Amino acid sequence: MRTQVVIIGGGPAGLLLSQLLHRQGIETLLLERQSRDYVLARIRAGVLETGTIDLLREAGVGERMDREGLVHEGIYLATANRGFRIDFERLTAGSVMVYGQTELTLDLYQARDAMDAILLHEVEQVQIHDADTNAPYVSFIHGGREQRIDCDFIAGCDGFHGVSRKTIPASLLREFERVYPFGWLGVLSQTPPVSDELIYASHERGFALCSMRNPNLSRYYLQVPLQDSVEQWSDDAFWDELKRRIPHDAADSIVTGESIEKSIAPLRSFVAEPMRWGRLFLCGDAAHIVPPTGAKGLNLAASDVFYLWQALRQYYQDNDEQGIDNYSARALSRVWKAERFSWSMTRLLHHFPQQSSFDQRMQQADIEYLEASVAAQTSLAENYIGLPY
Ligand code: APR
Ligand code: PHB
Question: What is the 8-class DSSP label of residue 335?
Fold first, then answer.
């Protein structure tokens, strides 16, 4: 077999890149380790930046998002029972779109099916070969058969635990990481959201976040110790703790209900440099991870995809390698700004177990300054809605 671009990984990055390249007339073949149902069952944040929204429309998958997505023109920050709003519209004339990643992935799958895309699921033992030559290829097992596909380029969209980043020689790779001393316990409930916009609450007991998927599907999070397990948290215990951490008016009005999904995720900041080795390009979580506090994971995957789509289009249409040569530096420039924002939001709002009393006073002063300063709020707003591509 042969194709122009092999895409490893069928999450948001892989599916969106394959859709954009295919619409450009560039041949792709996508290899996904899990089943389609497994991929679609993932519960992930769905706060879309302007750039992501524009790219999805460009890919021809924005119709249901525009119909069902919720436009949010601000968020609430809260501390010690006092909340204040960051008004994106007034400060930046911008907004974000709340649209669950599950829905986005479904839209991408339907668009890929409509174009008869070649998406192979339940692929095993994917291996990348000769990526540092002009004749790379990928071997894998599918349907019990060992297979090989020769290609021009390989897009490693296979997430943090994928094979792509690990293919780059350790001597050429630089990794930067911060692991946070807590996790997020997330609950999905078929209840109306407590607020029309997201509430990010800082509390001495720990961070809490009130989010949503649609007018009758809410998503809530609690900062929990790393050693906690989901089994320790009954629904009642979750709701009681959430009410302790969010402002009283929200706690008094929240509609609680049975959790239909409950999970704990660790928090990490991570970047691998470079995002290219020969004919292999890393894209999305394969190259970087952010703590979810800034809602940047999906949006960074989108900007990586934009840069790689542009670079490959330039190669195939203009026989110009400048885009692929610049891809890593261009993507990393935006990645590091989003890493900074996600780290700063995490540091601002979470209770760090070992933090000193001085650090606690710094957190309080940061939040008070944010509440009082248009300049500080504008900085947060422009990062939250997404810096330019
Ligand atoms: N071979 C084939 N597929 C693989 C392999 C492999 N060796 N390893 C991982 N995969 C698949 C995973 O099953 C997953 O479907 O690659 C896909 C990677 O998808 P994500 O982890 O979602 O990463 P990405 O597409 O970069 O999305 C970035 O979206 O998933 C959200 O918030 C999440 O930050 C993340 C963002
Ligand atoms: C979510 O809705 O899952 C969500 C929203 C905003 C975040 C993180 C997660 O910062």
Answer: H
Q: How far is CA 55 from the centre of its chain?
A: 15
- State yes or no: pLDDT of 80 exceeds 90: no
DSSP codes joined into one string, 62-131 = -HHHHHH-EEE-EEEEEETTEEEEEEHHHHHS--EEE--HHHHHHHHHHHHHHTT--EE-S-EEEEEE-T
pLDDT of residue 46: 87
- Among 143, 9, 76, 114, which Cα is nearest to 377's? 76
Share of the chain above pLDDT 70, in %: 100
Asked about 292 being catalytic, the answer comes back as yes
pLDDT > 90? residue 280: yes
Please tell me whether residue 212 adopts helix, strand or coil conformation. Answer: strand
For the chain, the domains span 5-70+96-177+268-346, 180-267+349-385
Mean pLDDT for 276-287 is 98
Average pLDDT of the chain? 97
Place of tokens 């995957």: 301
Task: Report whether residue 9 contacts ligand 1, using a CB cutoff of 6 Å.
Answer: yes
pLDDT band, residue 81 (cuts 50/70/90):
confident
5-70+96-177+268-346: what fold? Answer: FAD/NAD(P)-binding domain (3.50.50)
Asked if 324 and 280 touch (Cβ cutoff 8 Å), the reply is no
Residue 227: what pLDDT?
96
Pocket test for ligand 1, best of 6, 17, 32, 42 (most atoms within 8 A of CB): 32
Q: Which is the catalytic residue, given 12, 193, 291, 292?
A: 292
Those residues whose C-beta lies under 8 Å from the C-beta of residue 304, and which sit 6 or more positions away, are 13, 275, 282, 283, 284, 287, 331, 335
pLDDT bracket for residue 43 (50, 70, 90):
confident
* CATH number for the domain running over 180-267+349-385: 3.30.9.10
Contacts of 252 (CB under 8 A, 6+ apart): none
Contact 385, 91 (CB under 8 A): no
Which tens digits make up the pLDDT trace of 192-233?
Answer: 999 999 999 999 999 999 999 999 999 999 999 999 999 999
Is residue 126 in contact with ligand 2, taking CB distance under 6 Å? Answer: no
Cβ atoms 156, 281 nearer than 8 A: yes
